[in-house]
Amino acid sequence: MVYFRLSPVSGSGLLLLCLVLGADRSYALELNLTDSANATCLYAKWQMNFTITYETTNKTYRTVNISDVSTVRDEGSTCGDDQNGPRIVIHFGSGFSWIVNFTKNAPDYLIDTISFSYNTNDHTIFPDAEHKGNITIDKRVALKIPLNDIFRCKSLLTIEKNNVTQHFWNVLVQAFVQSGTVSTKEYLCDEDKHSTTVAPIIHTTVPSPTTTPTPTEKPKVGTYSVSNGSNTCLLATMGLQLNVTQDKVSSIININPNTTGVTGSCHPQTAQLRLNSSIIKYLDFVFAVKNENRFYLKEVNVSMNLVNGSVFSIANNNLSYWDAPLGSSYMCNKEQTVSVSGTFQINTFDLRVQPFNVMEGKYSTAQDCSADDDNFLVPIAVGAALAGVLILVLLAYFIGLKRHHAGYEQF
Question: Please, are residues 206 and 246 in contact by the beta-carbon 8 Å criterion?
Fold first, then answer.
């Protein structure tokens, strides 16, 4: 027999999901499996959501957040038998399924594997998906728990594999329940026991409506490159500062290029630069070609861990920054702001980027940004003024000279 309950969560659970994805409601899932004698054999209660990045038909990447599990249903959860361990099997939404397998290894049991499946044939959730069909992500967990304990983890747990990030929190689970009674003895996850991760937060504050936090120093400038085979196909040099606002709390994060990983891809019409670090799961800059003769920054996707344990994820594929002719690079020495959303902006310093037509691993001639162009307005204006004065002086001279000759003719 299966007892399955879906209930809205208020308080801290709701707050956490809002911090993660900005959702309106959060749902706790509760599952109580009983055997033929109506004794509980498995109990679980948890909250979860998912972030999926997929490739589109125009070779760009989009990120979708799956947080609505209000249609969840149990289909196949079991207490197990002598050959097979217990399983949690649920389905929700359009083509989503989530399966957890447990194994017994006395005096412990294992949360063995977690499988997540989604279907990119759903055009509403995955518009313009390049690869169609059902995709399954299997992840070996092998988390060992004493048989007589219930596993508890209020902190955020994250599983990442193949462009899919699974988030879990407020977890309670006990497989192989002894004598039909769920244990009151808790086995805590490491995240609940201690939290020692230090994130490079330069400044965190609760701003007034008219002020924003300011960092204590500018970010370091790093050079990042993407290769296509043995050839460099994308170059970027910049200092990056991330501005995140969640629940009226603003954080400014300086990216350290020395501890930042770089990946990406290059295609004829699009190019992607992906950065990652200990707190940044991914920060994507996606460039596109327009009118066959110019490039620009079209899309930014980000997912990162915040110091309060939540995950911040934002995607915007309708940007228009860093516009320059193909075959050149874009350069802006002054500070610029890329506004991705109302809660996420990127400040750049000493920026230079070339996502297409990189020759011999070097930047081509740069087109300066409008901010830098201001530096050249002053000498041009002064030159024009001097030229005007010179013209007036010459004109006066010729007029005087003409009058002088006219006077001689009169006498």
Answer: no
Rounded Cα distance between 251 and 306, Å, is: 9
Q: Considering all CA atoms of the chain, what is the largest pairwise distance in Å, rounded to the nearest integer?
A: 136
Q: 118 and 129 in contact (C-beta within 8 Å)?
A: no
pLDDT value of residue 6: 46
Name the token pair of 218: 């500018």
Buried b / exposed e across 57-92, counting CB within 10 Å, b at 16+? Answer: eebbbbbebbbebeebeeeebbbbeeeebbbbbbbb
Which residue from 340, 289, 345 is spatially nearest to 317, judged by alpha carbons?
340
Q: Give the pLDDT band of residue 15 (cuts 50, 70, 90).
A: very low
In angstroms, the CA 30 to CA 41 distance is 14
**Per-residue pLDDT tens digits for 160-196:** 888 888 888 889 999 999 899 999 999 999 878 754 3
Strand partners, 287: 271, 297
Query: Cβ neighbours of residue 406 under 8 Å, at least 6 residues apart?
Result: none
When the pLDDT of each residue in the chain is averaged and rounded to a whole number, the result is 79
Cβ distance 160 to 168 under 8 Å? no
User: CA dist 333 to 197, 205, 285, 295, 352, Å?
Assistant: 33, 28, 19, 19, 8
Alpha carbon distance 352, 383 (integer Å): 29
Better pLDDT: 160 or 381 = 160
pLDDT, mean of residues 255-273: 91
Judge contact between 294 and 255, C-beta under 8 A: no
Res 106 pLDDT > 60: yes
End-to-end CA distance of the chain: 128
108 pLDDT band (50/70/90 cuts)?
A: very high
pLDDT at 10 over 60: no
CA 118 to CA 321: how far, in whole Å?
A: 33
Mean pLDDT of 265-274: 93
